[in-house]
Design a protein that fits this description.
With 318 residues, the protein is an alpha+beta fold. The chain folds into 2 domains: 118 residues, 2-Layer Sandwich (Uridine Diphospho-n-acetylenolpyruvylglucosamine Reductase, domain 3), CATH 3.30.465; 166 residues, Vanillyl-alcohol Oxidase, Chain A, domain 3, CATH 3.40.462. It contains 11 helices and 15 strands.
Length: 318
């Protein structure tokens, strides 16, 4: 599937793209923006990830908070079934409501239902403007309260990302970016839309962060500053792989109101079990990525994590 990368057609009139599964996601972003359009799903791996992989994993990335996941944008597929048949699901039409929704069934199926050979994805108008700011917090729990306060204020950011202190230190060690080593957490928040609306909303978000205990707030004044803020977030995954030979990645989601409690609980787990635990993720939609850094060659360590996993599974089943 990754070898199928010959087709990337932007249909501006119908606001869609027809794409081979091996096309890199970042190339779709670039081509869509050249046409004045926007493809929102933007996982951190977009510079190397294929659209086929994103589709079969139903990836989203930071902009999932406002714009949703890949399944909201896939409107048609060409698929080779396990029996060798070539089928087409969906199509180019905006309204396609009859019959079974096979497109949605295949998206997120991780390749178990067939091999995708072509996809039709919906594009939307490119936002007129966007602004980004970063907020530093000396207490992790305060960043959680800031997140819930922003989301309950009537503002819907296009992205709301969290990095804890372990992430900050990992990124600074991997590629120095001027991040605050003393901060327990930083939030990266982006607003997009009409220029007048986002100016009011970005300032309101900054005020909320200050009220919730942020020690530092900086609104990016240039595109270069905005890119610098986001580059630190995109470096998290490669940076934490340098912390140890084995990375046990988790993906946990809770209701938004439980974000502060989730952060507090992760802190308790880290301290109680002496874990090298790194937390980051799309905090705006309650989705965090706790990562345990260890060494699978250390039998004692791996037994410890295995027993811990069993314990947590029993707690979940109860």
């Amino acid at each position: 599937m990754t070898l199928l990368r010959d087709k990337l057609i932007i249909d501006r009139e119908n606001m869609l793209a027809i794409v081979s599964p091996g096309v890199i996601t970042a190339d779709i972003h670039k081509k869509a923006e050249e046409a004045g359009l926007f493809y929102p799903p933007d996982p951190s791996s977009s510079n190397v990830a294929t659209i086929g992989g994103n589709l079969l994993e139903n990836s989203s990335g930071p902009k999932g908070l406002k714009y949703g996941t890949t399944k909201e944008y896939v409107i048609g597929l060409e698929v080779v079934t396990p029996t060798g048949e070539i089928i087409r699901t969906g199509g180019k039409t905006v309204k396609n409501v009859t019959g079974y929704d096979l497109t949605r069934l295949i998206v997120g199926s991780e390749g178990t239902l067939g091999i995708v050979t072509e996809t039709i994805i919906r594009l939307i108008p490119k936002p007129q403007s966007k602004q980004t700011f970063v907020a530093h917090f000396n207490q992790l729990i305060d960043s959680g309260h800031a997140i819930t306060s922003i989301l309950s204020s009537g503002i819907l950011p296009s992205a709301l990302e969290l990095m804890d202190n372990a992430c900050i230190r990992a990124v600074e060690s991997y590629r120095p970016s001027g991040l605050p080593l003393q901060a327990e957490a930083i939030l990266i928040i982006e607003i997009d839309g009409h220029p007048l609306a986002i100016e009011e909303e970005i300032n309101k978000c900054a005020d909320i962060c200050r009220a919730e205990g942020a020690s530092y707030v900086k609104i990016a004044e240039t595109e270069e500053e905005r890119q610098t803020i986001w580059s630190a977030r995109k470096l998290v995954s490669p940076a934490i792989t340098q912390m140890g030979p084995t990375k046990i990645s988790e993906d946990a989601t809770v209701p938004r109101s439980q974000i502060p409690a989730m952060m507090e609980r992760l802190n308790e787990i880290r301290e109680k079990y002496g874990l090298n635990l790194v937390v980051f993720g799309h905090a705006g939609d309650g989705n965090l990525h706790p990562n345990i850094i260890t060494d699978k060659r250390n039998i004692t360590e791996m037994k410890k994590w295995s027993l811990l996993s069993v314990k947590f599974l029993k707690q979940q089943s109860n």
